Amino acid sequence: MIKAAVIGATGYVGGELARLLLYHDGVTLTTLMSRSGEGKPYRERFRNFWHTGLTLTETNFDRAAEENDVIFVAAPHGVASANITGDILKKTRVIDMGADFRLSNADIYEKWYNTRHEGRKTLPEAVYGLTELWRGRIAAARLVANPGCYTTAAITALWPLFKERLALPGSVIVDAISGVSGSGRDVRETNLFCEVNESLKAYGVGIHRHTPEIEEGLSRALGADVAVTFTPHLAPVSRGILATCYVSLAEPAGADELWRLYSEYYGAERFIRLLPPGNSPQTRWVRGSNYLDIGVFADERTGRAVIVAALDNMVKGAAGQAVQNMNVMFGLPEDAGIGQLAVYP
Amino acid sequence: MIKAAVIGATGYVGGELARLLLYHDGVTLTTLMSRSGEGKPYRERFRNFWHTGLTLTETNFDRAAEENDVIFVAAPHGVASANITGDILKKTRVIDMGADFRLSNADIYEKWYNTRHEGRKTLPEAVYGLTELWRGRIAAARLVANPGCYTTAAITALWPLFKERLALPGSVIVDAISGVSGSGRDVRETNLFCEVNESLKAYGVGIHRHTPEIEEGLSRALGADVAVTFTPHLAPVSRGILATCYVSLAEPAGADELWRLYSEYYGAERFIRLLPPGNSPQTRWVRGSNYLDIGVFADERTGRAVIVAALDNMVKGAAGQAVQNMNVMFGLPEDAGIGQLAVYP
Amino acid sequence: MIKAAVIGATGYVGGELARLLLYHDGVTLTTLMSRSGEGKPYRERFRNFWHTGLTLTETNFDRAAEENDVIFVAAPHGVASANITGDILKKTRVIDMGADFRLSNADIYEKWYNTRHEGRKTLPEAVYGLTELWRGRIAAARLVANPGCYTTAAITALWPLFKERLALPGSVIVDAISGVSGSGRDVRETNLFCEVNESLKAYGVGIHRHTPEIEEGLSRALGADVAVTFTPHLAPVSRGILATCYVSLAEPAGADELWRLYSEYYGAERFIRLLPPGNSPQTRWVRGSNYLDIGVFADERTGRAVIVAALDNMVKGAAGQAVQNMNVMFGLPEDAGIGQLAVYP
Amino acid sequence: MIKAAVIGATGYVGGELARLLLYHDGVTLTTLMSRSGEGKPYRERFRNFWHTGLTLTETNFDRAAEENDVIFVAAPHGVASANITGDILKKTRVIDMGADFRLSNADIYEKWYNTRHEGRKTLPEAVYGLTELWRGRIAAARLVANPGCYTTAAITALWPLFKERLALPGSVIVDAISGVSGSGRDVRETNLFCEVNESLKAYGVGIHRHTPEIEEGLSRALGADVAVTFTPHLAPVSRGILATCYVSLAEPAGADELWRLYSEYYGAERFIRLLPPGNSPQTRWVRGSNYLDIGVFADERTGRAVIVAALDNMVKGAAGQAVQNMNVMFGLPEDAGIGQLAVYP
What we know:
Four copies of one chain form a homotetramer. Chain A has 345 residues and is an alpha/beta fold.
């Protein structure tokens, strides 16, 4: 049994990790840590855990590392890079849910996050945890940077087109809609029910921090720099990301042709479901599950491909993919503990 | 492995049964039937099953009975009573999700459902499937009448008070709120998004068909007739039932006292979670799970107990309890395949 | 033109008052006050006012009173009673949206609100502002206590039955569902979108502060004490209250009979719409409007009347009724500025 | 008083027209027609009209034309073109809410709508009713083609950039999210609450019929052909459209510069509200109102402008703009009857 700890267990991502790990056959969830959690029953933060006896303990990276085979860090950016030292990584393996180790270039991180990167020493050890694309490296990693929710959708959606050099590098627009859980459990006016309900908005236009992460992913596919215009939107759903991704094609291609290409890349994947041409994914079909559904469209009038990806931001966009990565790291079946179907309706 | 079939697999309850049975370790889901389903991929009705190869077949009770150890019937009322014959019950065991076998008195059924009862012969064989209350009889049953969603909440909420003769029989008011999935996948104007969203309504005031079912349950507890005023409401959530149940107490009791009584009845139950006095259940903590949460309150000013119960109408209120009953009938652990925590948020 | 000020203009009720008063033909909205509002554009709090040049000023009861014919106080309880002195009432008329002057007995207030009542001197001048029931007294009032949202629904729903001595005084149960705007714009975790969405809960069971207010209203109808069990619920809608009210009838009555009785009381009312027997009100038909819709039901099996009332908690449950009261106080047509239909869908 | 009729009064757009016209000071709403409406009380379809005595009559274009100064046609496409003859237009003025007269080229209409255009004779008389852009021609028109909801947002958002030749014609991507009322009151499974709630989807990718309408509008601005990739999305809100529009700029420009340009175009408009640079519109601030809010962004890294527009699809996107056009046609103040603020929250 893999012994696992969650640091930052009181936020939504922490709760989702606990939910998935608690009933994972290959895992013993030993520890739930939060900053001032010492001794508090976990049920006080998450009443769906009412019947469990789980208790929070105070955050202590050293103790977590010593007592566990893997620790999941679900803390605000800056926390992991300040605490995940080489010493920690000798004792345990780490899956960081935050942004600290996602960008390989710390300068770019510092520019977009407007803060010092405290983990430049460990950064080179980090492997980017988009499972389907970097499975081999993840298997061997001590430190996995679990991707952002928008990023998982966007990179997966556009990867084959860049890998095949079919997409023009300057043409990428990612327009995505997220549910509200993506902004966390922070008590802010903008997250109040009456401020979100029956409303739609764009936010962080041109400046959202997932932009350089998408760019790095696509640049790796192409082997050259890719610039992205990214606009996230908020809609009144608790869970779900729908990313609609636009690229101009280097040469004309129809939907069938695109579909065949995507089939080659993703046809054998356990968690990527490629819909037939003409079908658009919907977040309701992935809600609560680790699936990432993709629809491919060709707008032949304008020479663009439009790739639509849907995922649950809490699962494939966060905790589910983290468990998928853990499974890969420890040689378990990739779907262990995360094979559930979407809960619908 | 138990071989199982679902008849009426294209409605919401059928889909939920398929979801739970597909990953149940002790079950092989052999058959999904619907009236005109012959050969259609199941994914066309439920895209969360996209990656499965499940296919619908035409409804055929005989074939389902011959090939399976248990069949779940998720059809409109009248279908099960017309088709579940003694002959069928010799070949297989049946869990009926509909109302046909819930009321022990066919005359009362005919009055409330305004239709002939076609299954008077088999009716005496039916066992009412509120698992926690009739577990022993369910274990031996060939035919289980799975309770209504409102009914499960109301009877469980009030059972101890009537069993202990603490509740005055003429004083019961059950006021409940349901999510929209409770009214099924029928394409009716009243179920359109814009007709339901941002609205609240009562419906079926004084005439809802779960009324006699609640009355029969509570009458069994008391050993005498209990009359109930029942008002269901609709709120814009997909899943969930919250039932607020009022009774006048035969003698004064405080919340602590009530809580101790309920502890005796339900403290050892796997799926009933009794909240401490002062805490009210919320459907978000049971969403997607088989739990039934109960809060007990005493309005000492007026001499009433107010018992609040929350469940997911698709799970404990339908498919989950059906699987729970199947587990009991076949000697499996009661939580096999339905132990999941609520998916939150 | 009536000169009007709103004190506490940055909450939801304050915003709704501003919305209604700004386009009221008989009113000049001179002043929007908030505690630290000095000089801030109102649009920063309410972007629906973007194109207006309205600006907040600091709260100053004296100045508001000197410069206006009427002031609306939309502040937390305790504020109005501490500031609305006899001196203020000589200079202006006041409509208080809070609870301070709703209960005629300050001792009962102190018990339920668990705080000292600072306005015992002015309390006798206050008139309870349920327009349809106390129109005459409101017309002459210097100080109107605008009713609570739940209270408006419950008292209006049950008034005729108590006035006619048809309801048994100990039998009242009010079970109501509210939208989230009722809990204000406070930034609390329980009001976050993800904590409210797709969930249903009861709260304040047996201890909600609108209870004594409902009791006082019904006691006035009966001329004797009435005790009420009141349970409020929260559902994921922004606006709306649906109150389902139960009473045992002193003598048998059918729905038609009840309907005729209610017609006599409310048939001529501009803002009360009595639906025909068998029809239940829904909040979508009153959303954004000042209407209060009533449905009358008789549960003849149990000898109860079930009266269902729907209103928009921000309009008839707060700001709209306040404007209705202002219209009465200043001799304007009762529907001036508040005659709009519900915005549907 | 202008005498007005609504044909197609039982759909959502018809209901919204009735709501706005009923309380318009300059209008007498004489007639509400629907196909089989003869004699039915309007309240049966829209209970927010409960207290009105409005009654439906059968659809009769001739009678409507003879008895009214203006008729609003809110019918499926094809109906207006088949019925609005030159003869009708001699008797009355017509505002068509459908698509029949929006495209000046009937061949393009026939291609996108896959049906014959029955009104080629009257088509040249039609004036496109995006009020702010074609006010002069609308004033004189006998037949106004009221724009689509998405189209109003997209053309208004991009007009200044094309008029000033700042946008590259092949670079336009319009990515928009709509509320569910946009798909009408048709009883289809895809519009059921449980199919829409807690879900996000794209639909009609590359083939939505508003595409050629957006293209014609922008082509008029540029004086040359503009091709558009348009992707509509559906989110679980009743009302609202948020359109995020991308263009590559012919020369570098920052947000301030763009804002100044938009100020010149829209600064004096009654219903267009230009937000300061860095601010994104949200549909909650326009809900129930005729406002169209615009936010301008420059993604200087990629040389794109991102213009975000928000409107209420039932008001500025349909019935509100129709009334605005009527006001222009009859010389009334442009905001007569439609000056209301958004109902928030």
